Amino acid sequence: MGNNLKTGLVLIFVLAAIVFAGPLIAPYDPFEVDMSVRLQGISLAHIMGTDQLGRDLFSRLIYATGTSVKISLVVVAASMTIGFIFGSVAAFLGGAVDEFLMRIIDVFMAFPTKIFTIAIAGVLGASAFNITLALIFTSWASYARMVRGCVLTAKQLPFIDASVALGANRRYTIVKHVLPSVFQPLSTFAFQRIAHTMMMIVGLSFIGLGVQPPTPELGAMINESKNFMTTAPHLFVFPGLLISYVVFSFNILDDSLRDYWDPRIKSELVL
Amino acid sequence: MSYLIEAKHLSKVFKDKESTVFKKKEIIAVDDVSLTINRGESVGIVGESGCGKSMLGKMLVGLTLPTKGSVNYDGNEISKLPYSEIKKLRPRLQPIFQDADSTLNPKFTVKKLIEEPFVINDISKSDANQRIDELLSYVNLGKELYGRYPHEISGGQRQRLGLARALSLKPDFIVADEPAASLDSSVQAQILQLLNQMKSNHGLGLVYVSHNLRIVSMMTEKVNVMYLGSFVETGDTQDVFDNPVHPYTKMLIGSVLTIDGDKRKLGKTKVFGEPPDPKNRATGCAFHPRCDCCTQICKEERPILKKVGDKNRFVACHNM
Amino acid sequence: MKKEKLLEVEQLNIKFTTSIGDVNVSDNINFTLNKGETFCIVGESGCGKSVVALSLTRLLPENAVINGSVKFEGFTISDLDDKEFAKIRGQKIATIFEQPMSCINPVMRIGEQIAETYRANFKCSKKEAKLQALKKLEEVKLPANRYNAYPHELSGGMQQRVMIAIALACNPQLLIADEPTTSLDVTVQYQILELLQELKEKYHMTILMITHDMGVVHDMADRIGVMYAGNMMEIAERDAFFKQPLHPYAQELLNVVKDPCHYTIPGTVPNLMEIFSGCPFEPRCQKATEMCKTYKPENSVRDERMVRCLNVIPN
Q1: Contacting residues of A for B63, CB less than 8 Å apart
Q2: Which chains have 3 or more CB–CB distances shorter than 8 Å to chain A?
Q3: Residue A267 touches chain C, beta carbons under 8 Å
Q4: What is the mean pLDDT of chain B?
């Protein structure tokens, strides 16, 4: 196991703790307003200070990370599932079905993601649920395309012919040879997309189209802090750092997993 | 007597990627080819790259169905059998591929690869293990390789592993597609000898597909020279090599550099032109643009295989 | 008659340093190239033949440690600095490789690439360079209308011709050909080799050819060097070599090539990470004695042939 992978796993583990055990760690209720301690700096009581309504920033950040990461996980998992089904059905059935499904995918690929999400938020109203839907709606097509590509390539690999020649039936080749070769690029792609999706959610919330205050969310928090940029810089520095942290940990994990899964690269790494 | 394999008028046509709804383009990879193989006989198919020899090999073992024509195995037409029968038949017809590396799943270990044929065919563990021991000693591979991945063993070992897999189910017919092309001469020799041994010990039919004419001349009893999807000359190997009739056969044989004899061969034969593109087939005889004895009829009319001499020789050429 | 020497390689040692140890790819190799001859280095894959050739033009990766002296036309070029060396590499030594596509620019028209190379070496006008490039195209027997073609529009054989034209654009004295025809069809190989032969005579070039194909050696070589596991086992004139090779490895190799259905060399090619206390071929050699296990054979000369074997008695 390479050092990058170890680092990645540790980072992700810490992140998972923040996301899933957040309420246990957080010292305060993130919604509790206390105007007497408004806009305070770092202190023992509030280790990251407080915001303009006197809410504990540390607790809010923990909940906020949870919100952002959970939404992106849902988006990625859902679009991966839809994409996988669409893509593999298209590739395995081929012919007219493939042609038809691909045109549908083309239509979805043609939607400009950001503008479309903004439109949905505009029509349905800005909320966490609506941007989740909008993001799934606009992103599943790229998964489908990639799955279809991988299956088509995998189907033609000579070792599939070799096992067919040995008497393997369709199910055997799909389960033993095709799907494992699809699984790996798909999951690397998904890991990559988690970071990307999170940036989208943060961005949309920042412009006010995503998660709505007072629900803590990293982008929304940065937006709220912009009026206090000079007086209380910790209000945007900490959420900003957290965003970088999340994106970095998913990227490093995605990178090192790709190396880890490829037996060829693995032996080169030893050299 | 029935033949082990009898292929009748095989053709394989592909749709060209450039074809549109309005204009259909087709690539004819194999064009009306017939051949027969007996038990214990080895037959060579030679030609330049892109002549369709690999595709023909795939059709002979039933990996690809022909667009037209039929392949009969022991009197049964493969393409007409129900799936359950084909599945039973598959292990008897085995291909050995040129690039052993790509026919071994890179994520499987050597152990998993050698066991795969038995897993696929639901053969009991004990029977399988016994057979695997036989196979490994036959192709001279040790069990110390079990934990390795295909890219961690040498090219010769990979090719021998491929051989072991192909042999594991005791086939009676093998199509070897350039089985030794990418190997060094000493390793190549090991593979060739294994193939010969298999043929003589088990009496199997062997089709040897290659562009290396020297090896074909040593490995086979009959040879078919292929140009752009069809046979241009067929006959007994010795006879064809001693006395080639078709200009293309002459050119091919003339361009093989060997170490037999003192004299250099370069400059002795007229060799020109590139291997043809199946998309732009010449009219008439496909070989005429590269032929130095081309006449008017060659440009217009397509020659068919005709018997030449009293031996088993057929040549497709107008100028005989 | 004493032949004029073009390239003299003495005591060439090359190793690659890696994190799991050194790989010795060239062990005290000596050879000379006479002007106007074709010298073929032949050996199985992994014997170090390509590395030796690439080291002459300093095209090896950074972890290669090269020791030894290389003289070109009497000058020692092995201790020139990289800038001075680049001049020699451009103007006097040219290299062609097995995969032409890896060495020609895929997005540049082939004629321009030849012209560019010519201009880089001879500092002339663009017009002049274009004329020269057209001339080179004709020399490698490509039609002039291919000047504006992109590399991917050409077949493998034609790409190899383009590569030869680029190599010729600087009128090199030495052409290093590293497996130039290995991935080509026999008919195309034949034509490319004919072309090389013709150009060699026209320009009085010297060719250093690296190959694993004895058939090619038989037809192209004037002299032959046989390499095994980083060692130059035998160097001999072509006729004498094919009549009777002196080194047991060369003998076995010829037998295998002549009759692959009955001969083999038992064993496998050794790992170059090993350090051989004796002769590297000893484990596979049928003529090996106890002595071969412990003593490393030195270069010895017999009948004007260099042989590295303890059982060949020098004279």
Answers
A1: 161, 164-165
A2: B, C
A3: no
A4: 87
User: B-chain residues within 8 Å CB-CB of C220?
Assistant: 266
Give pTM, 2 decimals: 0.82
Q: Within an 8 Å CB–CB cutoff, is residue C271 touching chain A?
A: no
pLDDT band at residue A1 using 50, 70 and 90 as cut-offs = low
Angle in degrees, CA C41, B179, B225, rounded to 5:
95
Q: What is the mean pLDDT of residues B293-297?
A: 87
Tell me if C185 is assigned to some domain.
Answer: yes
**Domain check: are C104 and C147 in the same one?**
yes
Band of residue B240 on the pLDDT scale cut at 50, 70, 90: very high
Say which CATH number the domain at C227 has. 3.40.50.300
CA distance A189 to chain B (A): 19
Chains with 3+ CB–CB pairs under 8 A to C are: A, B
Judgement on whether residues C197 and C76 belong to the same structural domain of the protein: yes
Residue A48 lies in a domain: no
Is the per-residue pLDDT at C259 higher than 60?
Answer: yes
Asked, for residue C271, whether it belongs to a domain, the answer is no
CA nearest neighbour of A25 among A67, A54, A66: A66
Alpha-carbon separation of residue B11 from B53, B59, B284 (angstroms)? 12, 9, 18
Helix (H, G, I), strand (E, B) or coil at B33: strand
Asked which of C129, C146, C171 is the last residue of a domain, the reply is C171
Q: At what angle do helices A57-93 and A218-225 cross, to 10 degrees?
A: 140
CB contact under 8 A, C185 and B48: yes
Quick: pLDDT tens for B33-45: 999 999 889 999 9
B contact residues 166-225, partner A, Cβ 8 Å cutoff: 166, 168-169
Residue A265 banded pLDDT, cuts 50, 70, 90: low
User: Do C183 and C256 fall into the same domain?
Assistant: yes
The confidence score (pLDDT) of residue A270 equals 38
pLDDT score at A269: 40
- When CB atoms are compared, the residue of C193, C212, C268 closest to B154 is C268
Over residues C162-187, the mean pLDDT reads 89
Do residues C189 and C66 share a domain? yes
Distance from CA of A110 to the nearest CA of B (A): 24
H or E element at residue A50: none
Q: Would A255 be classed as within a structural domain?
A: yes
Residue A16 lies in a domain: no
Mode of pairing for the β-strands spanning C174-178 and C93-96: parallel
Query: Which residues in chain B are contacts of C229 at CB distance < 8 A?
Result: none
pLDDT of residue B33: 92
For residues C253 and B236, give the distance between their C-alpha atoms in angstroms, rounded to a whole number: 29
Range of the domain at C110: 93-171
Give the number of other CB atoms < 10 A from CB of residue C286: 9
Asked whether this complex has an ipTM greater than 0.85, the answer is yes
**Does A102 reside within a domain?**
yes
Asked if the model's pLDDT at residue C162 lies above 90, the reply is yes
The alpha carbon of residue B299 is apart from the nearest alpha carbon of chain A, in Å, by 38
Comparison of pLDDT for C111 and C312, the residue scoring more: C111
Q: Grade residue B1 by pLDDT with cuts at 50, 70 and 90.
A: low
Interface test with B, best of A163, A166, A169, A269 (most B CBs within 10 A): A166
Structural domain of A128: 3-9+55-270
- Domain boundaries, position B190: 5-105+168-315
Q: Can you give the length of chain C in residues? A: 315
Q: How many CB pairs under 8 A join A and C?
A: 4
Indicate if the pLDDT at residue C185 is higher than 70: yes
In a shared domain, residues C218 and C251: yes
C315 lies in some domain: no
Contacts 24+ apart (CB under 8 A), C56-60: C56/C7, C56/C9, C56/C93, C56/C176, C56/C208, C57/C89, C57/C93, C57/C95, C57/C176, C58/C82, C58/C85, C58/C89, C59/C95, C60/C14
Closest Cβ opposite residue C219 in set B154, B155, B264: B264
φ, ψ at B10 (rounded to 5°): -70, 135
Measure CA A254 to chain center. Answer: 11
Interface test with A, best of B73, B104, B116, B132 (most A CBs within 10 A): B116
Looking at residue B101, what is its pLDDT? Answer: 80
Total count of domains within chain B:
1
CATH code, domain carrying B196: 3.40.50.300
Q: Is the pLDDT of residue B294 over 50?
A: yes
User: Cβ contacts (< 8 Å) between A260 and chain B: which residues?
Assistant: none
**CATH number of the domain bearing residue A65:** 1.10.3720.10
Residues of A in contact with B94 (CB under 8 A): 165-166
